[in-house]
Structures are given as C-alpha cells and as structure tokens.
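User: Fold this, then the next.

Assistant: Folding the first:
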Amino acid sequence: MPVGDSMTIGSAGEHTWRYRIWQHLRATYGGPFAVVGPRETLYDKATDTPTSYEYADPDFPHFHLAGWGEGWLHMAPLIGEAVRAHRADVLLVSLGLIDLGFYTNAAQTVDNLRAFVAEARAAKPSVRMVFLPVIPNVRARTDAPFAAEVALFNELQAKAVADLDDPRSPILLASLPESYDVDHDTYDGTHPNASGEHRIAAAFAGAMHQAWGVGGEYDTSEPAAAPEPFHRSSRRRR
C-alpha cells in the first residue's frame, strides 16, 4: 500500500512513482503481489479535487492511501482501518514535507509518525513498513528555518525507526533518492516529474531488495528523462 502526500497521489496526466514501483516489482518479484488501498484517483488541479483518473498509463492497479495536502497528521488516524480493510502486508510511506511546511514542527511530526506505526500494528501486528526521508524541496533553499526542520525531522525519523523496528513488524528507512535534484527531478520544485518518479521508486525498491530480498535492484537504465506529462492549470499550488 503506497501512503503519502501530493508527491504520491500525483496529479492528472502523470504516471506517479506508484506506477514505477509496480512496473519494477512486476519485472523483478518472483511471486504474485497486489497493490492495495482505499483510494484510486489522482488530484485534479483544475477542480482542486482528488477526482481524476487521467493517468499517463491507466493500465496498472491505482490503489493507494495518499492525498494532496495530507501528511502524518492526517494519515495516522486512517492507517489502521486501511490496513485492516485492505489486508496490507507492506506500507511504502512518503510523508512529512507537508507536515513540516504547514502543520507541525519536527518533534510533533515524529509523534504523529509513532502514532501511525501504533495504529498500523494494532490493525496487523506483522505489517512491514518502509519510510522515505523527507526530500527537501525548493522552499528549503530560501527558508532556513524550514530547511532546519526538514533536516531535524530526518534525524528524528531515523532514531524513531531504530527505536520502533521489531522483527515481528520490521521498519526500514530508505535512503534519500540518489542524486535527486529539484531542478531536474521535479516540475515545480516539489512534485516529481518522470525522472523524480523513477528515483523515488528506486529508493523504495533498493531498501526492500537489500533488507528483505524483495524484487531486484532498480533498473537505472529506465528512461529517467522521459517526456514530461501534461499538467492542467491550477488555481492553487502547494
């Protein structure tokens, strides 16, 4: 089950990193697997609603628990029911940027991370989780306090993962996507373009392969510089 904010739900016209990791696992994982979650749609910037099915390639399982403008604060109360209802075994989680940008400081955000873990485990004691560190966006270049909160959260998240990891319900902390560059890997300084989608998927794939032997190494020869998706105009951007 992919779990995340606007970088995970994606918007109309995109593939999303969810599509990239599905492609990768389909090519490298030796057994059957399913992508699960209570939501299916992309965010529609034209209507400011999560109602679009306009995937760049719609022929993949769209399921997820992700929302535009939603963070650990929002997902912690939802994750238990989502895991229980959809029988999720593994959570691929990319959260934190929106929290730190608008809702909570680093320490409060980690408290919500801990609540998320507790709720997920209450629903399924054996659930596995992979967390992605927060990727600093373009705001971090000019907003020093925000950049400091991002750096502090990533430190606190690493400590929380070490503290919460359990053989019965292991938690992995993926590495920051290799060579991620907001000028090259996003279309607006925050949201991933095709190159960024591949790099995020590769971070999750690498963590699962190295720690659990799931799938294989991500194929870095995949076309990271694929043509950019069409993005509708928007009245509001994050």
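Now the next one, as you asked:
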Amino acid sequence: MSELSINTSQNVTIKFFAASVGERILAGFLDILIKLAYVFFIMYFVVNLTGIGIVISGLDDWSAGAIYIVLFFPIFIYSLVLESLLEGQTIGKRIAKIKVVKIDGYQASFGDYFTRWLFRIVDNNILFGVIGIVAMIMSKKVQRLGDMASGIAVISLKNNVNISHTILVDIEAEYKPTYPLVIKLSDNDARIIKETYNRALAQNDFDLIGKLVTKVETVTGIKKQDESNRDFIKILLKDYNYYTQNM
C-alpha cells in the first residue's frame, strides 16, 4: 500500500495510505449500481407510469433525444457534483471509505474536480477503463490520468494501522465531536498524548498538562474553547477515537 505524505497549509504533515486499485474499483462499481437504480427509476416510474413515454414517442427524434438527455443528465455529472458537495466523496467512495484529496494539502476546488471529471472520458470510458486501471497500477500514488492532471490523490480512510488499546476511550453512542482537526494526529501522537496526560494526572503535574495543550494546539491548529486543560485533552482523545472509528 502506497503511503502519501500531505503537507497542509498549517505546515503539518499528515500521512495517509493511497486507496488501492481494488478499493477504487469497488467504489466505482457501487456508483454504477446507484446510476442503474436511477435509470430504472426514471424509465419505470417517470417515463412509464406518468405517461411521459407516450408523449415522447409522438415527438421527432431530436426532441425525444433532448428530453432523454435532460432526464439522464444527472448520471453524467454524478461524480462531479457529489465530489464537490461531499468534499471528495461519491456515495460509492463513502461506502468504500475512500476520499479524493489534494496532494498539496489544500481543499480541492471545483476546478480540480472538474479537471478530474473531464479525464474520465479517457480513464474510464475508452477501452472499458483499462487506461485508468493501468495508470493507477503504474503510478506510485495509485493515480489515474485525471488525478495526475488535477494534482489529486485518492486516499483510504480505513484505519490501516492497528490502534494500540492504550489510545482507545469509551464513546457514547450519541457522542458529537468538537475538534475535527484532531484527524491530523497519528495513532502514535494520540498514544503519546494519552500516556503523557495520564502520567501528569498521576503526579498532579498540571503544568505539564498545560504544556501538552499548547503543543497540541501548535501542531494541529486546534484552538481550545472554554473547557479546562484536562477536559480539553479528554475531548481531544474522544474526538480522535470517534473519527478513526467512523472513517
């Protein structure tokens, strides 16, 4: 599995694993199933049951074609719209737990998604997707041509490294995270934070806890809210476990 190091705008390096070819094919297959379900819905419920099909059959070829283009247009822009709205994910990608990200660490723009979407004509449609698959196999970052052109990579959101039990904390079923930037931490970072925090508590070393909070804020860009330093670390560890268990 290829490891990617992404340097964010806050000068923090985040390490991810590139999504495998198999994961990307799975996501694509799931998206195809969703598109087929949409086609079935349009043809059966919209065209047949509403009587639009009878109207279309009485039109000339150009007019009928125009109506079908409008009805099925969402299929053509499916990935472009969803990746733009869902921050790099389609429904298939979300189920497969993979995501599109910019290699330079910035949030991908609509232009990036659009460039990537245009290259689908070459990557996915010519030779039944062979070009895209070959490009991903040959690329160190598992990129197809559209990814390379837009400076994008597709990462796996699965927890590829076994989390040490020392960083696991209990989370309520209804728990709502407070600090999403906590995902910038690695498993090792979370383990060190928890071990340092527990040691400081055992020694009543509140100065160390304060220094730990300052370090976390500096590294992640997180700004502590109104809670105490101790509560901040507790929330931070819960948030980390929440995101790693739900991504």
